[in-house]
Each structure stands twice: as structure tokens, then as C-alpha cells.
Design a protein that fits this description.
Elements (H helix, E strand, L loop, with lengths): L8 H17 L7 H24 L3 H27 L5 H28 L1
């Protein structure tokens, strides 16, 4: 039985992804500190934060909302990764791996929200 959001595999995956994105963003130039660096870190961290928030909510409707916000942040992070690749800040193979990992995470979030929607 899951007793904490930390026990959820979807949270564990999203948390590790946010750490990986943070480490990747360390290599961005200082000129990006208030642009891409800040945006990609905030959006990637938002994924796991909203999963934790959803876990703490009581109703399925509330949970669905936060899992949906989390999914939106995952897509936002994918966009920032692709932009960083297009601007040649990030290696293409690294971007490909991270985008695919986010695709898997989005799939997991969709499964959760679909299950919850059947309860509403």
C-alpha cells in the first residue's frame, strides 16, 4: 500500500527527471539564468511537486486537477529541452533520452488520471 507520495513510482520518476534536468541546466550560459535556466528548472520541478500535491488531495476531482497540471509541466519541460537543443545548448542524444523519459512519465500520468476519471 502506498503511504506517501514518495512511494509512488510516478513521483520517483518525475523527481529523478527534475534532478537530471537541473544537472543538465548547470551547463547553460549565465545569460540564460533568468530565461531558459529558470524556466526549465521550474517546469521540471513542478511535475513532481504537483504529483505530491495530488497525493495530498482528498477527492478524485482535486487529484485529477493536480495530475493534469503535472502533465502540463512535463510537456512544458519537453519544450524547454527541445529549445535548448535547437539553440545548441544541449546534446541532441541527451535531449532525445530525456524527452522519451518525459513521454513515459506522461503516459504514467495519463493512466492515473484515466483511472480517477472512472471514479468521478
Amino acid at each position: 500500500m502506498i503511504k506517501s507520495f514518495r512511494d509512488m513510482s510516478v513521483w520517483q520518476h518525475s523527481f529523478q527527471l527534475s534532478v537530471d534536468v537541473f544537472n543538465l541546466s548547470k551547463g547553460l550560459p549565465r545569460s540564460e539564468d533568468y530565461a531558459l535556466t529558470s524556466q526549465i528548472r521550474r517546469s521540471s520541478n513542478s511535475v513532481s511537486a504537483n504529483i505530491a500535491e495530488a497525493f495530498g488531495r482528498k477527492t478524485s476531482k482535486d487529484k485529477i486537477y493536480y495530475y493534469t497540471v503535472s502533465r502540463g509541466s512535463a510537456y512544458e519541460t519537453q519544450n524547454h529541452l527541445l529549445y535548448g537543443g535547437g539553440a545548441e545548448y544541449f546534446d541532441a542524444s541527451t535531449i532525445d533520452v530525456l524527452v522519451k523519459r518525459y513521454d513515459n512519465l506522461i503516459y504514467e500520468l495519463n493512466k492515473i488520471t484515466n483511472k480517477l476519471e472512472r471514479r468521478v
